[in-house]
Amino acid sequence: MEFRLTEEQSALRESVREFATEVVAPVIGDHYERGEFPYGIVKRMGEMGLFGLPFGEDVGGMGGDYFALCLALEELARVDSSVAITLEAGVSLGAMPIHRFGTDAQKKRYLPRLCRGEAIAAFGLTEPGGGSDAGATKTRAVLDGDTWVINGTKCFITNSGTDITDFVTVTAVTGTREGGKPEISAILVPAGTPGFTVGPEYSKVGWCASDTRELSFVDCRVPAENLVGERGRGYAQFLRILDEGRIAIAALAVGLAQGCVDESVKYAKQRVAFGHHIGDYQAIQFKIADMELRAHTARLAYYDAAARMLAGEPFKKQAAMAKLYASESAVTNAREATQIHGGYGFMNEFPVARMWRDSKILEIGEGTSEVQRLLIARDLGL
């Protein structure tokens, strides 16, 4: 396996890094403090083609691949995770289910606008009583003639209530299998459909400039043709989407971990204590060296998982390992970066304060650390 980037990949990385530094960094702090979705930044990301990176030109995409998306996510998260998760969720959870499992009509109708960033989409899986236990879905969808009637609640859904949200794909129980197990399907619900209510924005610890809401469905009716993929295959589809998404979240986590290194190196060269820059002290040097080690190793892990995925090889275990190690490395690096900054690390005007608040969700979202360990153990035959 080759871990060096091609010229095209390097150019993409540098382009996104420049965008993150020059466009995102100067304004994202204000968005974050106000809990405000950064529409202007998202519009610019759409114009750059970032939302279309892994999709074909036939649907308005850039003709790249999933690794290209990961490179973009890493560079964005070096500066801010709210912007990065908006892209990650919009592509891997919003558009990808349509790309992987949608009908030709669904792809033609929805993907071009999603690829251009003119609209974003969400995926409604988690429920108030079921996070890791996603198979315990309570939302129900009953086929009434040529219409699905949906009732239920979803929570913690990213990109679900913005002014440019086009639709949410929700999982729902559509019947019962032999043996009494629920039949779970995925159904596309357009924004504004009667009976579909989007709750207020959550007050969150981190990712404060991203959109996250609770959704409720009360006798919400959508056409039968809004079924995404095969009936009864919604849960299996979701597992495939999450396997891929874990690589993307790993890339985002690596970006945050690397951002903590960047900020700590810069601060260590500026801050003077006891007559010396703090970077002259071995205690600080060793902290930053360990932070760089974690970021580098986590990057290799997600590169490997992405390479296996794109080669058509099994990658479930590698994706779980990458997500687990990268997310826990991000949390550790954010804690260490805050410590290096001292009191300033507790001030929101410093990026490491945002990174510290943003890091914890990476050990929870799109599969907890405990779930990743379970997947790894299962692959080992345990």
From TrEMBL:
Coiled coil: none annotated. Its cofactor is FAD. One of its GO terms (molecular function) is acyl-CoA dehydrogenase activity. Keywords: FAD, Flavoprotein, Oxidoreductase. InterPro entries: Acyl-CoA_DH_CS (IPR006089), Acyl-CoA_Oxase/DH_mid-dom (IPR006091), Acyl-CoA_Oxase/DH_mid-dom_sf (IPR046373), AcylCo_DH-like_C (IPR036250), AcylCo_DH/oxidase_C (IPR009075), AcylCoA_DH/ox_N (IPR013786), AcylCoA_DH/ox_N_sf (IPR037069), AcylCoA_DH/oxidase_NM_dom_sf (IPR009100). SUPFAM superfamilies: Acyl-CoA dehydrogenase C-terminal domain-like (SSF47203), Acyl-CoA dehydrogenase NM domain-like (SSF56645). Residues 6-118 form the Acyl-CoA dehydrogenase/oxidase N-terminal domain. The keyword Nucleus does not apply. Residues 122-220 form the Acyl-CoA oxidase/dehydrogenase middle domain. It holds the Pfam family Acyl-CoA_dh_1. Residues 232-380 form the Acyl-CoA dehydrogenase/oxidase C-terminal domain. Belongs to the acyl-CoA dehydrogenase family. This is Acyl-CoA dehydrogenase. It comes from Actinocatenispora rupis.
